[in-house]
């Protein structure tokens, strides 16, 4: 049956958690949805293949009678699928520190490549994944994207079972974990279509928060699972096998309970136009500093603990081992929505400057206290760094819709509110993809530093310098002449 996709339901671009703080604020992509009449709307039409026609979440009568229940059901399964995506995306960050115990003899440089490759692929996949929902349907693509997670999960289980597995094969399997990173974009794009503007912020916040928690859960659960029934060694293949039942449940749930919307359509033209805006590239740089730091340090934190404090790499609790590295992505994920809330009160630019200043000071303190060889001080400082990056994520994304509404080229040339909102929504998806490349850059900078000097310290000084530069860029562009440029509230 031919499906009519002509109805307008806004853009299909992904946004990050920071566009939709958990305190219930309306996301910028939500503002891109024009209000519609609440009466005289066609009734929902349920078509084969779980396609729904005539969906209009802005119609209050339709929303209250059937829409809310349908949207909530789709959100629940979207959260679960995206959560597993983040789990798979971050698996190698915790697996690599266990490779020597399983008999592997990779160099430090090779270990960092295994850590960084999933982020490189995942960041790249975020862009095409954004447009998969309009092309194939949200339910259909959730099924496909969930089943794709089986490839890296099974691959990991197989390749780590044999210490003779060549590094090239390991690197390829690690790259396939990038499927999990791409899931974020399609999941967020899908949920955008289901909710009205007044509730979109909360829904996207839940969806993104549930996904981000996958990084922390992976780093918590894997060390427990691989040591639970192991005798004198680690059962490393379990790091991949343990997620297969959950992936199959997610795919089945999407097939059984999720829906496709005929009204969902992408906005390729909006994305192309957003790329021409200088502010997109400025904000992308700032987001590399905030989200890039979060996802990059999440990937290397277990490795850093093992290298600096090997005795604390895993802590025995009964018959299982526990890694405290999961606390980093946990506090960073929890801090992100509060960064958006504080930005609403103080201004996103000011909060972003404060976040970069905090990250620079914390990183310097961490460098200067390393000679003390105090693990607990190191842990506290790194958790503070994760928290600051989380606050920065929320603040940075809060800035984007305001900047595009007041100071973009389109706004200054007299473009309509709808047009600037369209550009902002497209920019959010693109910036979230660019920021994810930080997950590749940070491990590789640490790798280069260790190769050249035998120490990570030069890399950390480089990160401090980058935070200072990004602070200066944010201040110069969005605070220095705020009143003159009508950006005092950014």
Overview of this protein structure:
With 490 residues, this protein is mostly helical. The chain has helices at 28-31, 60-95, 108-130, 132-136, 138-148, 150-159, 167-176, 178-194, 197-228, 238-241, 244-257, 268-275, 278-308, 327-346, 348-369, 375-406, 409-412, 417-435, 438-453, 457-478; strands spanning 45-47, 51-53, 260-261, 315-317, 320-322. The protein has a three-stranded mixed beta sheet with strand order 1-2-3. A two-stranded antiparallel sheet has the order 4-5. α3 runs antiparallel to α19 and α8 packs antiparallel against α9 (197-228).
Please summarize the sheet with the most strands.
Answer: 3 strands, mixed
Give helix and strand order, one letter per element, not per position: HEEHHHHHHHHHHEHHEEHHHHHHH
Quickly count the helices.
Answer: 20
Q: From the alpha-carbon coordinates, what is the Rg to the nearest angstrom? A: 22 Å
Provide the helix percentage.
55-70%
**pLDDT average, as an integer?**
84
Helix/sheet category: mainly alpha
Shape: globular
Strand order, largest beta sheet: 1-2-3
